[in-house]
Design brief:
Blueprint (H helix, E strand, L loop, with lengths): L9 E12 L2 E7 L2 E3 L3 E5 L6 H8 L7 E6 L8 H5 L2 E4 L11 H11 L4 H14 L15 H13 L5 E5 L7 H16 L3 E5 L3 H7 L2 E6 L2 E7 H8 L5 H8 L16
Parallel strand pairs: 4-8, 4-9, 6-7, 7-8
Antiparallel strand pairs: 1-2, 1-3, 1-5, 9-10
């Protein structure tokens, strides 16, 4: 995927973003720059601050400090304008289990003020695309984990967002669902959208994303295109090796424990 020119601008930028929980700085002065029209992978170990950052960016948590601009809009001054332009799939999916798949999309469409014809046509397209048409009248509580991921993504896409936030979209799903989601995200970006996602599956991020940011202990330790990060490593390391170096885990070794062998 080609990198955007400077004139394209940024879909998302933060300056000194902070979120404290008591004495703990979960997000500590993060400066993000996410170019429009990119798949941006936001990486970090468990507890590094990834989900907290996404919650601040999507309005689920109030930052303790710093500034944000999302699609050129200040979300503190105009939160509704931002919410109309973004789609969110949180890690816990936040679905209504007692609604069917079709009812879930109808509810989301009405919240966003879609007219009946648009809601009907978009819902049909998304259910078909996600292979959920046959299960559209089943309760979400009866969906498999992969199906729940897909209906949550369909709900996020339904209003026609310009920016998608996805927290661990590939966790716990099979290869078929993973391929469907990856193809859909590529198509979304190909039409000018921007995706900001977290994932622990670095192989997927390396194949899918054009840009990455790495957070460790609440601080952004690297950011840029994958190509630039590879060039900075000087020795042709893959993303996993670069990531482990950046978060200070590159020299970790499993200790010798002879008692584990039979």
């Amino acid at each position: 995927m080609t990198e955007p020119s400077e004139s394209v601008g940024l879909a998302l930028e933060t300056h000194g973003l902070r979120r404290n929980f008591g004495e703990l700085a979960a997000v500590d002065g993060v400066d993000l720059s996410v170019p429009r029209g990119t798949l941006y992978g936001f990486l970090g170990p468990n507890g590094a601050g990834k989900s907290t950052t996404i919650k601040c960016l999507t309005g689920l948590l109030r930052p303790s400090g710093g500034t944000m601009r999302i699609l050129g809009i200040d979300p503190e001054n105009n939160p509704l304008a931002v919410k109309r332009r973004v789609g969110v799939v949180p890690e816990d999916l936040a679905l209504f289990d007692r609604l069917t798949g079709a009812e879930t999309l109808t509810f989301v469409g009405k919240v966003h003020g879609l007219d009946k014809a648009t809601l009907r046509s978009r819902s049909k397209e998304l259910l078909d695309l996600m292979d959920l048409t046959a299960a559209s009248d089943n309760l979400v509580s009866d969906y498999s984990h992969g199906m729940r991921k897909k209906i949550a993504l369909a709900a996020a896409l339904l209003p026609g967002p310009h920016l998608l936030f996805l927290d661990e979209p590939f966790e716990g799903i099979d290869a078929v669902a993973s391929r469907q989601i990856k193809d859909l995200l590529h198509a979304f970006v190909g039409r000018g959208g921007t995706v900001f996602l977290t994932s622990h599956i670095l192989e997927i991020v390396e194949r899918l994303c054009s840009h990455v940011g790495v957070i460790a202990r609440g601080k952004l330790v690297a950011q840029g295109s994958l190509q630039s990060l590879r060039q900075a490593s000087h020795d042709g390391k893959n993303l996993e090796e670069i990531f482990l170096d950046l978060v200070g885990a590159g020299e970790d070794r499993i200790p010798q424990m002879e008692w584990l062998s039979g």
